[in-house]
Amino acid sequence: MQQQEKLIFDGRHTPQNISSYSFSFGAVFGVCLAIGYYSETFPQLGIFFSALALFHELEYMMTALFKPDIVSLDAFLLNNGNQYNIAHAAGITEFLIELYCFPTLKYIRFIRYIGFIIMVIGQLVRSLAMWYAKSNFSHKIAYHKRQDHVLVTTGIYAFMRHPSYFGFYWWAVGTQILLCNPICLSGFLYVLHRFFKDRIEEEEPLLIEFFGKDYIEYKKKTPTYIPLID
Ligand SMILES: C[S@@+](CC[C@H](N)C(=O)[O-])C[C@H]1O[C@@H](n2cnc3c(N)ncnc32)[C@H](O)[C@@H]1O
After folding, report:
1. Which of 99, 128, 148, 156 is the most buried (most CB within 10 A)?
2. In terms of C-beta density within 10 A (0-12 exposed, 13-18 middle, 19 or more buried), how is residue 153 classed?
3. φ and ψ at 79, to 5 degrees?
4. Closest Cα to atom 13, ligand 1: which residue?
5. ipTM higher than threshold 0.90
6. Closest C-alpha to ligand 1, atom 14
7. What residues pair up with 229 in beta bridges, in sequence order?
8. Residue 160 gets which letter from DSSP?
9. Does domain 89-230 have CATH number 3.30.930.10?
10. Within 13 Å, how many C-alpha atoms sit on residue 18's CB side?
11. How many CB atoms lie within 10 A of CB 96?
12. What residue ranges are annotated as transmembrane (predicted)?
């Protein structure tokens, strides 16, 4: 009985649960996309919400695919902390205020397209990273080497270090360009840079501890392509 309760509270997921959670997120994605498609004047908000739903959906799906034994609701990455929620709330607020005060700012088609393309590239790279890293990927930094943890240097990891951070960074920057939000774009650039710089500085010494010379050699050959992080 205790064991069963533990499993429930751990949030371990059955295939049925996985498909129903994914279906619900898929439905949110579809509805947002439809709103974006049919709202001719300002489709950005619909596209933004579908991108948000798709992003979190894929985080969960990839974890369910490669780590079915530990997948839980946390894998949706919805519990990213206050900074993340405040950042997106600020983005939506800025969009709505400027839509009311300076609607022409939101009409700049060229900027919207650039934002959309950056966002799609970010999402693609993030998902490719999770795909190639498979069970070596974890949402939280690993402080101890698991026996089955191997250094991934193939696929998207052959071209860049930390592709999942690259993807997250550019996806988030892309959302603010898509929404034509100059204030939040500056804020996102600053906060994302600090966040990923600190994260990489914490992660890399551990990777050197786990994989020694192999990681040092790998690091020499692969840039991050995140601005101001070599
Ligand atoms: C959130 S994942 C991020 C992975 C990587 N930093 C990226 O952006 O694609 C964090 C975990 O991935 C592991 N990791 C990072 N790079 C790795 C690599 N090239 N091969 C294997 N594991 C890696 C770290 O040990 C850490 O626990």
Report:
1. 156
2. middle
3. -95, 60
4. 137
5. yes
6. 137
7. 226
8. -
9. no
10. 20
11. 14
12. 20-38, 86-103, 110-133, 168-192
d(CA 54, CA 169): 16
What the block records as the tokens of 149 is 């943890």
Nearest-CA residue for atom 26 of ligand 1 = 141
Q: Of all atoms in ligand 1, which is nearest to the CA of residue 215?
A: 19
Domain boundaries, the chain: 1-79, 89-230
Average pLDDT taken over every residue of the chain: 88
How confident is the model at residue 6, as a pLDDT?
A: 37
Beta-carbon neighbour count of residue 55 at 10 Å?
A: 23
Using the atom order of ligand 1, give the atom closest to the CA of residue 200.
6
- Map tokens 């939280």 to a residue: 140
138 CB within 6 A, ligand 1: yes
> Which residues of the chain register pLDDT less than 70?
1-17, 20, 37-38, 40-42
Contact 129 CB / ligand 1 (< 6 Å): yes
Is 124 near ligand 1, meaning CB less than 6 Å away? Answer: no
* pTM listed for this prediction: 0.90
Listed residue (169, 147, 161, 170) closest to 221, CA to CA = 161
Q: Which of 193, 190, 200 is closest to 163 using CA atoms?
A: 200
Instruction: Indicate whether residue 142 lines ligand 1 (CB < 6 A).
Output: yes
Ligand 1 atom closest to the Cα of residue 142 is 27
Ligand 1 centroid to Cα of residue 21, in Å, is 26
